[in-house]
Design a protein that fits this description.
CATH topology of the largest domain in chain A: Spore Coat Polysaccharide Biosynthesis Protein SpsA, Chain A
CATH superfamily of the largest domain in chain A: Spore Coat Polysaccharide Biosynthesis Protein SpsA, Chain A
Radius of gyration of chain A: 21 Å
Helix content of chain A: 25-40%
Distance between the termini of chain A: 46 Å
Structural class of chain A: alpha/beta
Oligomer: homodimer
Largest interface: A-B, 36 and 36 residues
CATH class of the largest domain in chain A: Alpha Beta
Strand content of chain A: 25-35%
Chain lengths: ~350, ~350
């Protein structure tokens, strides 16, 4: 069978875990398992030990993060984007790189900063999906089996079933409202779109040529000079640019306690699943001392965080920044980050 | 007139401002005016510039604090108590010291860690009270004019008026409940007991001989050896041991925006009085960034504290300790401190 190549997208600079995450050390470079534990990127890489050899691993990130990423992933090739241009240019570049060495090679594209609760289940699904992608001219995705009516994710609507846990994808569906999400869950016909794809390099390049022909044109005109090509590549997502338009998309059902770690509150979901929640709430770094307090999420490396009579707060500290937020406002942390950027840019 | 001697009681090791206050650096050694500003002890001392010469100043504290206190009050004599025994032994010792140098000297005894909003009004009252104490064989107190029905303080019930803002004290009254406190305020016949006293050394020593004769006996038997005397002196308050029993107690009405700074919430009262409260609440150290948050009290030297959607919290940081407490639980911080003492004693 063809070799498996791993392409990890690690360009994110999200603000949803501020102050733990900053522009210099975004989520993929953080650990959520406690002080001194492996980062999400390290965990992502180690899931492929024995599946993808070092020389077939590649990380795509932005220039400002290249050095930190390289330190965290010794020996792994790092593609350094001149600027963030969403995922389509990143996938296109990576596909050109794989194709130049191994056109029949299967590449797995996935984010650097997600959680997999059951790694062996994840690896088994990857093996099946890689075999399928090597054999068929398809764009293979890993769709996550939903366990709740989540409104924070996009969905895949399943078409014809091909094999157990393998179906055609009928449509990519935007984040639904609560009513629709409940319908999706009840129907059993939807999976979460976790942004994980497998295909042969030649197959995705053909799809680019069909749906985003400007990519090849810009690339050829720039003679593969990244600095020249990148600003001109269409800044859109691979989902919107290619996947939603292609007709040869199939999905494996991934059932491995996946979580995208999208906000402080997902740490809580995770901790409860792992039985790591305790009196006072969840503490992902530092030490929590809770008196008559419940449902809090605490992250303060090396610190003792004492709570008295408070419920449902996020309390996070990093260097000279301390955040205290109501848990149900976790999605609005960007408001704080924008304000902090003006006052103390070095803390953001 | 007799000389004025100043006796500052600075032995407190309260926990109500933890983690800002610790056993090594209690409240009197802290500033509540912002990073790098003078401590409460320094402010207390500077109120007597021009009133009490350096050689007539004395601070009584416990052995463990002696060094830190001496550094904060250069040139001031420090009496180092072998152990904390409440205020009666402390006053007795100080009175013996003053009497040995200047029996007719008037001594002013007061805490090190209170706030005076209008210093000139305080000084004017001290001057009048010192003149009275020099002239009359009385135990003079400074009773604070109440501006609210406070249940956290003891009260003085006024007897016969002697001069404007000077009355006999009919009784010392324990902390009242809310209904009684409201009656006290409405009656105009009560002042707060702020623990500030003036008397000639010989007058208070006579009162000790009358109401606590064991003090002199222990002292004489120990030949003035503090280490021997202290453990045997009656550990009670000067209020209970002497003042409540004496019949020659008078009080001046002190009206100078006094506050005992008894908890994090008194900082708020103070800040509002000073017009220092802002969006999000009050910040006594560090920088506050508040988004849709109100009524909080923040103290985190050198830190940026970002609040999102939270109201009426205390957020305080010192070294490796962070406290987040509901403001109406400020009186229960000792619960947290007791728990922290077991887990991280170095932080308490």
């Amino acid at each position: 069978m063809s070799q498996l190549h791993l392409v990890i997208m690690a360009g994110g600079s999200g603000t949803r875990f501020w102050p733990k995450s900053t522009s210099r050390r975004p989520k993929q470079l953080l650990s959520f398992e406690g002080d001194g534990k492996p980062t999400l990127l390290a965990r992502t890489l180690e899931r492929f030990d024995g599946l993808v050899p070092l020389e077939n691993r590649m990380i795509v990130t932005t220039e400002s993060l290249t050095r930190a990423i390289a330190e965290e992933a010794p020996g792994v090739r790092v593609l350094s984007e001149p600027q963030a241009r969403n995922t389509a240019p990143c996938v296109y570049w990576a596909a050109r790189e794989v194709a130049s060495r191994d056109p029949k090679g299967v590449m797995l594209v996935m984010p650097a900063d997600h959680h997999m609760g059951r790694v062996e289940d994840f690896r088994a699904t990857v093996r099946r999906a890689a075999e399928r992608a090597a054999r068929c001219d398809e764009l293979v995705t890993l769709g996550v089996k939903p366990d709740r009516a989540e409104t924070g994710y996009g969905y895949l609507r399943l078409g014809e079933a091909l094999e157990p846990a393998l179906s055609q994808v009928e449509a990519f569906v935007e984040k639904p409202d609560a009513r629709k999400a409940a319908e999706f869950l009840a129907s059993g016909r939807y999976l979460w779109n976790g942004g994980m794809f497998l295909w042969r390099a030649e197959v995705i390049l053909r799809a680019f040529d069909e749906f985003m022909p400007e990519m090849k044109r810009v690339w050829d005109e720039s003679h593969g000079q990244i600095d020249q090509a990148y600003p001109r590549l269409t800044a859109t997502s691979i989902d919107y640019g290619v996947m939603e338009r292609a007709r040869n998309v199939v999905t494996f059902t991934l059932d491995c306690a996946w979580d995208d770690l999208g906000s402080w509150t997902s740490l809580e979901t995770l901790a409860y699943a792992l039985g790591a929640a305790r009196e006072g709430g969840v503490c992902t770094a530092g030490e929590l001392l809770a008196v008559q307090s419940r449902g809090n999420v605490v992250d303060a490396p090396g610190k003792l965080v004492a709570l008295l009579g408070v419920d449902d707060l996020i309390v996070a500290q990093n260097g000279d920044a301390i955040l205290v937020a109501r848990k149900d406002r976790a999605q609005d942390i960007r408001l704080v980050v924008e304000a902090a950027k003006k006052r103390r840019p070095e803390l953001v």
